[in-house]
Records
---
Amino acid sequence: MAEPISRSRDLDKLLLRPGHLVLIGFDFVKLRDDLQEYVRILVVGAGGLGCELLKDLALSGFRNLEVIDMDRIEVSNLNRQFLFRLEDVGKPKAEVAAKRVMERVSGVNIVPHFCRIEEKELEFYSEFSIIVLGLDSIEARSYINAVACGFLAEYDSNDQPLEETVKPMIDGGTEGFKGHARVILPGMTPCFECTIWLFPPQVKFPLCTLAETPRTAAHCIEYAHLIKWDEVHSGKSFDPDNPEHMQWVYLEAAKRAQLFGIPGVTYSLTQGVVKNIIPAIASTNAIISAACALETLKIVSGCSKTLSNYLTYNGVEGLHTKVTEFVKDKDCLVCGPGILIELETSVTLKMFIDQLEDHPKLLISGASVTVRGKNLYMAAPPLLEEMTRSNLGLPLFELMDKSRTGIVHVSGTAGKGDKRQSCLRKLRVASRLSMESQIPTWLVEHKFKNPWIR
Ligand SMILES: [Zn+2]
């Protein structure tokens, strides 16, 4: 059945005619059909931004979408995550979002994945033309960024990777009335890790301010939450999901605010401060998602130059938006050529894994090791651990089919204390012969005969 003409009218204006901004190789005759046929897009996250992204991408003519999200729908999502209804509460977000968009947009196929992003093999991610991120966590972004950067291969003498190995990412993010959309071409433009400083550390108030000189409603709330609670409830820990606990903190904060003449303490602000909730605004999600969907279309079609490379949107007072061109960190551990680790050919996989824990730039514990998609050792789950355990005693050199240099992917937990997070690193392993076999045979023989040579 022929599609109604109106469905792709706007898309055709972009894709079915040439223009001054189109990139080399732009073939406007076949393009629209190719987009629908061959391009596969992964949307990471099916929350506020993810719902918008799936809808926008489906309406932009993409037909092969997949979405991954580990969360289930909660009542508090319904005000902005517009694909969900009251009867969906408790169901996986990815599944419901995929179903709803397929019901409304004919011809699109969306495959949902209800799981953690770390549960998927690297190969899963390699199959997509482009990865679009609608996440709210820095850790999850870091992880996907490392996965995409891990596909980079064969750097030339200028440390530029092979273009075919570049897996583009579009990252969207919103926080209240503010948001960003950025284009990441790993190895070519700054990756997420190159500009990690863009995410400031969470605001923590000094305890002395809370205890002695509160100036804002948030100070009063944190006083009740962090100081007063422990004084009164010795030993009983505060549970942010217990409404009675929250109510107690709210009343204490209100008392303190009155004492210091500070206005503004409410129950919902108490929840916001204690749980560190940043309100999500549907319009911000819609605007950022539209920017991300457009960049996706531009990258895969070449119908226009892409954003270079970071757009910020601020709707707090009036509207302010601008684009900044950030630069790549040439020493980036994630999108650069990778840390070089030199090993002797006799070093076993176990010894290699132990070294990762002490390496000052890595500090990875509980590492799993993969070479060219082959799992050499998996620290978890137990079944895979058992299957790969026998490799631990074998030399890494042999496990890498005796190639002198190679890329090794390592995943595990990095950092110390409560800063620990799952991470994925790409390493360049270069093997050299063991010291012993580098010594010329005549010397070895000589050594045994002549006690003066050590
Ligand atoms: Zn980087």
---
Amino acid sequence: MVMYLVVALLAGVVLGFGLRRGGRAFRTFRGMRVLTCPENRKPAAVELGAWHVALTAILGRPVAQVRDCSRWPERRHCDQACVREILGAPKAALVQTILASWCHYNACVCCGAPLATMHVGPHQPHLINREFRIFEWKEVPPQDLPQTLRSCEPVCETCLVSETHTW
Ligand SMILES: [Zn+2]
């Protein structure tokens, strides 16, 4: 009886460690990323199969592979060389990281208020382009986001509300 309890306890510990590794792998590798495609050296929006990474991490060695890419389906059978770059710096190319960095280093073009405290979530960053059109970053295809952020200015929530009420 004691033997069964020890085996069950050990199995529970091993399973617990595996699930923890899987959960950590899922949180690390989920989300859309924008990086330079190693093949054509142009921006591409890439999403890894986070569930696949998590399940393989539970079973042993995590295996990462591309689930979707803005260059697909034309380049569906590429060698997925971008995966190595993602494994080397999992957070760097995340859309959330790119937006957070943009907010951190910019101020509202209307009132000058810093955007460092703006959260990517309920209060979405807004952009204004050279034609004075205001739009949300979600309207931009992810692979175009870095270029769009370079050519636009941010507008804070307060200015956006006051501007849209006077137009
Ligand atoms: Zn403002």
---
Amino acid sequence: MINMGGCAESNPEIIKDLIKRVAFIYLSLAPSAVGRRAIKEKFILRRRLGLEYLCATLKNKNIETKIYDQVLLDFSLEKLVSFLKRDKIDLVGFYIISKNLNIVKCYIKEIKKKVNIPVISGGPGCNHYNELIDAGCEIVCLGEGDETIVEIVDYYEGRESLREIKGIAYFDTETKKILTTLARPLISNLDNLPFPHRDPKMIQKYCDYFAYPLKRPYITIITSRGCPHNCSFCTSHSFWKRKYRQRSVENVIQEIKQAVHELNIKSIYFVDDIFALDFNWLTEFCQAVKKEKFNFTWMCNLHPMTFRKTREKAFSLMKESGCSIISFGAQSADAEILKRVNRDPGEPGELRKAICQANSTGITTAVTYIFGLPGETVKTLQKNIDFCLEAKPHIVDFHLLEIIPFSDLSIHYSQGRVCELGEDQLAYYNMKYMMSYYLRPKIAFQLLRDILNKNPARILTFSRLGFHFLKILLASPGSLLSGQSKQR
Ligand code: B12
Ligand code: SF4
């Protein structure tokens, strides 16, 4: 085990051992969560693809890796410390999103006290690097980590100096300041990356019960990194620099082949921010999947404006190659709100056509909205539900706006309220519209028929989900229906 007394940079003489085992940690949001978040964490168990990429890179350097995912393993801090000791871990890396930052900081402090190993972090929440370093984290990876992690390991093995590593933040012992190094250029050819390392023992544990056409075992794959859009509530563009980098079809097919062969997967969720921006890429991809005669169903996220001129052809190609569900990020049905968050006011019109086209092609449609965007009123909320009732996607999900630190929205609205509606009111309408949507006989029947058609076993899961929902509702009615009394 590496001995890390104090700051790494100040102890060059002890940085000599080889790093043999690295553990990555994802901490759950659920311990403090109630209501719908708790349900979501129980019913959507997706792999940490970013960490699987890092594991693959390190495995190529003969380093053993582990992912301790608290959503799956449900460990306490004590248990985690015992895992680290038991597995003789030499380096620990946390995955940060803004929402788990505080809990990660607590864990870092305790780990530093109880186990003498270096702690680093990275992920979409890495712009909180000051706080992480204050908590005891030695190095924070800013942005894409596939190349940085290798140089960080080299640093701990004594071959690299921190100043030379691009794309990190660290505490500099000379200047006594937190420094950031030069930005690391984005990887130019994603085909050069190893395929994510997927632990066969964990594969059965992952599920996504809401996306019922996906069967188990299933995996997530990413065919591109980045998004050219600039929605003000999102941080993808600041992290991935609005550059859309796409893997070749051949490279993606190789990854699928490996997963089908080694893991016997039945479904794939392509978690790209925006899947298949290029119609030619999509055509080539769908034809290749068909040609290989793979037997899996798949899902992707589409922007409402994608394929607006080639939609019919695109959806039919997708269906023929096994696409069984598309998720659209609608965000709002109100043109003014869309403009305010840097979206195209023409989206609802295009989305209506897309849902209709996908539904008639036999692809399940899921649509997500955010309640509480700038300019939201009771009237604009009503537009969302009216739109859904007219367009009839199979699944709708209304989220409450959570302002992500460092997003454009967090900067513009750092002082005041984003809209005239309070959280309680938004939560009330959220529940009201969710219930009023799914309790419509036509919608409920459409959903039931689609589940029976695509994955009848999920009926049982949906009953379990209903039971959980009821349990949480009874245990903490305020968390789900808060605001109801005020509305009445
Ligand atoms: C798929 C996805 C999900 C899935 C699965 C989550 C998962 N971890 O796989 C689901 C639907 C469950 C989900 C949920 C949520 N998500 Co999400 N999700 C994504 C999405 C679209 C892709 C993640 C991914 O696989 N990326 C591809 C890999 C290659 O990149 P990566 O994960 O960032 O990892 C790279 C680097 O970050 C770095 N790295 C990562 N960790 C580490 C650690 C170390 C030590 C090092 C050195 C480097 C390093 O190296 C990796 C390889 O290059 C991203 C957007 C995006 N494009 O990244 C949002 C994103 C991560 N999600 C986000 C959010 C807000 C959420 C929710 C909180 C939403 C909500 N309100 O409920 C929940 C959180 C619930 C949870 N428990 O995770 C935000 C996070 C923003 C932030 N700054 O915190 C993102 C960035 C989208 C956005 N809106 O801006 N999400
Ligand atoms: S919300 Fe979606 S479309 Fe908008 S910037 Fe983020 S990833 Fe891109």
